[in-house]
Specification:
The structure holds 2 protein chains of 2 kinds. Chain A is an all-beta fold. Helix content of chain A is 0%, strand content 61%. In chain A, strand 6 and strand 7 form a beta hairpin. The chains are: A mainly beta, B mainly beta. At the A-B interface, strand 5, strand 9 and strand 10 of A face strand 5 of B.
């Protein structure tokens, strides 16, 4: 079983739609959580952190459910420019080191 | 301020050939990483470094070697390329206390025939 699992999609949505992605993680020692965005044939970039209390950044809302070990990303009022792959990222700390695990990503296509 | 740069951007190798990928960052980051990205697999950590002169193995280190002789540079070497090493290679860097916020280079597309 992969340590971080995401629905690969693709999600095809019209402009203005609301879309949600989920991600599950298997290591209960996971400490911090993030969403990265990767445009086609480009490098990944940090989109936002995910906090237990939930956090919002404009049209984007991220939530964490530690009990069920899943993370979600909600995009409201989708724009064409939101078309990208969204990577779920989990940071696991341990004595003497750390490990950052990237999910395989969920592809989103927003169409006019 | 260029951020993270990688050279070359593209390369085609024949099986058994060797090459070195160069990564450079100008953000004075302590940590640097090499990943490979394959379809459906996500980013997988090959090797990483927490400081000049130190390196450590990641998830998929076999067939690769690294060196970090200067803080700003992190080199990834393939001694004898194999078709299974066909991939997109990304270098990244981060501050030691913000390892989750990694800044990536534009990637190197490597094909081994």
């Amino acid at each position: 079983r992969k340590e971080v699992e995401q629905d690969p999609g693709p999600f095809n949505v019209p402009e203005g739609a609301t879309v949600a992605f989920n991600c599950t993680y298997s290591n209960s020692a996971s400490q911090s959580f993030f969403w990265y965005r990767q445009d086609c044939r480009k490098e990944p970039k940090l989109l936002m952190s995910v906090y237990s209390s939930g956090n919002e950044d404009g049209r984007f809302t991220a939530q964490l459910n530690r009990a069920s070990q899943y993370i979600s990303l909600l995009i409201r009022d989708s724009k064409l420019s939101d078309s990208a792959t969204y990577l779920c990222v989990v940071n696991i700390g341990f004595t003497g080191g750390f490990k950052t695990i990237f999910g395989a990503g969920t592809r989103l296509f927003v169409k006019a | 301020n260029a951020g993270v740069t990688q050279t070359p951007k593209f390369r085609v190798l024949k099986t058994g050939q060797s090459m070195t990928l160069l990564c450079a960052q100008d953000m004075n980051h302590e940590y640097m990483y090499w990943y490979r990205q394959d379809p459906g697999m996500g980013l997988r950590l090959i090797h990483y470094s927490v400081g000049e002169g130190t390196t450590a193995k990641g998830e998929v280190p076999d067939g690769y070697n690294v060196s970090r002789l200067k803080k700003q540079n992190f080199l990834l070497g393939l001694e004898s390329a194999a078709p299974s090493q066909t991939s997109v290679y990304f270098c990244a860097s981060s501050h030691w206390d913000r390892s989750y916020e990694q800044y990536f280079g534009p990637g190197t597309r490597l094909t081994v025939t």
